[in-house]
Amino acid sequence: MRIEFLGHELQSPIIVGSSPASWNADAMIACHEAGAGAVVTKTINRNAADNPDLHMVSAGRETLINCEKWTDLPMAQWLDDELPRAVAAGVKCISSVGHSIEDSRLCVERLEELGAMAIELVSYTDDTVLPMLEDTKRRVDIPVIVKLSPNSADLMGHARRCVDAGADALTACDSIGPAMRIDIETGKPLMGGADGCGWLTGAAIFPFTVARIAALRKAMPEVPIIGLGGVTQWQDGIEFVMAGADAMGLASAAILHGPSFITRMNARVDAWCTDHGVTSLDQIRGRVHEHLPVEQDDGYAMGFSHEKCRHCNACVTACAYRARAFDEGGYALVDESLCRHCGLCVSVCNFGALSVEKGGIR
Ligand SMILES: Cc1cc2nc3c(=O)[nH]c(=O)nc-3n(C[C@H](O)[C@H](O)[C@H](O)COP(=O)(O)O)c2cc1C
Ligand code: SF4
Ligand code: SF4
User: How far apart are the first and last CA of the chain?
Assistant: First the structure.
């Protein structure tokens, strides 16, 4: 599905976040050809990064930890070769620039001349972003996006200050950390940086991101938001939009599964939209806010579908209150006298056999 974003028509709502999936022009072109609406460059800095060996590991379950810095290519290479090549290939390029005004003032005008559709500013501390933003806004006419850090002590206040200082859009959010994993055979940390730590991305951070997007959308209804952080299945993109995002950002999924993930996700998102009569994401954007605050109601009861139950046992073992047991027919029925209506069994059933309903058991 095509979308309008920051004055551009994008071929899809998927925006690839700054990461190894966008480490050079060829990687960006591969994402574009796979269907990405836009691609954010790996963060450009005045010095090429020197990353330690072992700077990216899988933490299992579609989750990554990395201690990778910004781009390991010189700024001049981005300006002379990578960005012009990506733009010439038709990539809608968002140029990520960090992490201080000394870096941004060296390149933002040139990035605009080369055809970047927007600049995305990123830094390690909130204090360094605002001067970068104010300076960049004076230097360029293209939109300037600020990438928010979920590690900020005052994410909402910082977001507001950025918008007041002229940010045209927000990316919510960056990776979460610090995070550590240990090899239990050696006792060594899996990350190769001096502190053994890195930053968490992928599935583990998804619910956190959804909450941040929802809060930002509620506080700033008009500000364009790139949702980013934790997308690992196509449904996650829809969820981002229902929280209030304008675009579906992802990085870890494109790293772990390659650019073809984007093609598959676009196809499934489009199919879902067709099935649900959605012709524009505007129809579903921020839908969660129609249901907030959640109505507090004790009148729920557990629903059970005999047709859908596959007798897998997941709900029975997950119930801490032992309220579910198999009947003689092998159906995992609930004992309402024990059930606390916590809802867990409904979410662990992979077959859609369970539901919570108002007004009695189906
Ligand atoms: C290996 C790796 C390197 C990254 N490098 C950058 C970077 O240079 N600049 C940046 O702004 N974000 C960087 N990110 C963060 C991503 O852009 C994104 O915010 C984060 O991965 C969360 O999205 P995800 O869960 O879809 O991966 C990096 C992420 C990963 C996994
Ligand atoms: S809702 Fe909670 S208490 Fe009730 S059956 Fe399910 S898991 Fe057990
Ligand atoms: S988790 Fe679902 S499919 Fe499995 S036993 Fe329970 S109701 Fe049946």
Answer: 37
